[in-house]
Amino acid sequence: MSNESERLQRLVTAEFSKGMLVPDRDAYTSGQALFDYGQWLESVTWFSIGAEIGFFERQSAEEAVKLLWQQKAPPLPIAWPSWFRQQKIFGEHLVYTGAWPAYRREPRFVTERLDSNQPAALAIFQAALLLSREFRDPCCLNLQRALQSDEFFPNDFFDHVKGAEILAVLTGDDQDRPEGPANLIAGFLQLIDLLAAFEAVFPPVGEYGTGIERSPRPVLAKLIGNLLAWRVNLRDSRTNEKLAIIKDAFGALCREVIEVNQWFPDTSRRRLEQLLENWRDRSDPDINLVGELPLEPGPSTGNLSEPEDLKA
Amino acid sequence: MSGNQVRYRHIRTAISENDRSFALLSIANPGDVKKALFFVHGFAGKATTTWADFLSLADDGLTSRWWEGADMFFYDYHRASIREQIHDNAVDLFHFLEKMFPAPPEGLFNRPEENLDLRPRGFCYDEMYLVGHSEGGLLARRAILMAAEKDQGLQAYRNLSVMTAPEPKGLLKAYLRLFAPAIAGTLLTGIRGLIARSPVVEMAMAVVVAAAKQGLGPEAPPVTTARNETKEMADAVNMDCFRAHIVWADKDWVVYKEKYPKDRECTNSHRGTRHTTVCKPNEAYRLPLEFVEKGIGACV
Lengths: 312, 300
What we know:
The structure holds two protein chains of two kinds.
Chain A: H1 3-18, H2 31-53, H3 58-70, H4 82-85, H5 91-96, H6 109-113, H7 119-132, H8 138-148, H9 163-171, H10 181-201, H11 217-228, H12 237-258, H13 266-282
Helix pairs in contact in A: 2-3, 2-11, 7-10, 7-11, 8-10, 9-10, 10-12, 10-13, 11-13
Chain B: E1 10-14, E2 22-26, E3 35-40, H1 47-51, H2 54-57, E4 70-75, H3 78-83, H4 86-100, E5 110-111, E6 116-117, E7 127-133, H5 135-150, H6 152-158, E8 174-179, H7 190-196, H8 205-208, H9 221-236, E9 245-247, E10 264-265, H10 287-294
Parallel strand pairs in B: 3-4, 3-7, 7-8, 8-9, 9-10
Antiparallel strand pairs in B: 1-2, 2-4, 5-6
Helix pairs in contact in B: 4-5, 5-9
């Protein structure tokens, strides 16, 4: 690798590292801290994949993974994909082979398909990384937390949200942004926008242009689809139940605001469902890891999985 | 760059004082980077989501090497686009553009503490492309008019103090590339506009367009001012910055499809494109990339 490539790797690594905060392990009992832990897990995994394809500096990625290994894992929300909750045990594989649960029988899958330092792969990775930051937008973040945890899902009525309340959420400053259903519907609007942007970067299978067999795009689509699935896990029934409530409220809002006499015209409803399905399908189905791993997850309690002390 | 098989990519860097805006800087040899491209999203849009997937396709092997010699600036004013007036947002854009073109701040390229050292001192761009989507198109036009008002040479020519039209300089060197611009007004504003711009709802607009009469209409002051002043300037001087190239969406329920007299528009809209997708290239829809580079020459 050229000195120039190494220099660029150091540069992007330094910038990425600035945004990585290791959560406070003493605060893991709160839902917010668990969410922070999830964001950290995600960041470390971005680091791992990025190092694998030559985007990030390998040494820094390995140090981040090592730090993750040293932390005791808290009980994690069962709304997250099981492999994401347990991915610490894959940490070593992630760095050295790029292995993911569904690819375990082909542990070198990623490195076989993606040569290091391919400009196109680096650009796609960078684009996805940029888009993923939009998940951290305050409204979108509130929506994710609410979908994952009952603690953050309001008991208020969702069918009386006014357009003005949504605008107030979107234009308000962080400290005085209204909470409740309006906040979640505003987050849903942003989520739709974000999923549509991801679809431009990672079109559904069958919509790729020519040369797909040589394109890193489908490989990265799967990797990054898996990586981000924990944020809005549409393979989780509880998440879908809550999302259905928000979709209904969104439909009611459309009816009120744009005076449509039905929930949505069929084309819009189909487009929404298609966006959500494409998001879900970009990730692998959750698989039962019990028996395949060197640990036995305990029974789940409420919204949390049992602690996973991987050093035990 | 010609003859070299290496594809120079772009790396993302933050822009200080505009924390949601960012730049994708070319790593080509500094002497080969002549162009600055500015992307301006529309009402309730964002710098990232509006322009995906310019973010990666600029570096794609199938994309023209023209992009290797360009830095891309993605300007973000998401919250201001919803709550501030067009005029205020145009002023902010104007200041941003002036700060970046033709002489961008050195800190953008050279930050020793972060190991960033991309360009020599005194680096300047030669060419500027101003790319707007929806209300971003209207802001772009307003920003150009502000530059024209500030340009003493141009004002002297218009006041008949001098007889020769000046060569364009500063922002007046811009080529305008507009995607579904709101230069003739929008059908919907406020919460209606916000909902209508959602990628899943815009198709519903076909049945509700008749109910939508309270937007940024063709006679609203921000629209008429931009139209009248641009028309006057385009009649007075032959500068590209007053003659935008425009591509419209195939189906659009958000903006009025009406250009200014000297503008040039693609007459063959890409089938199936909508207001929010017309500016989003993907591997199968490369028109937006070609349009930024070649203007309506890409629409043949």
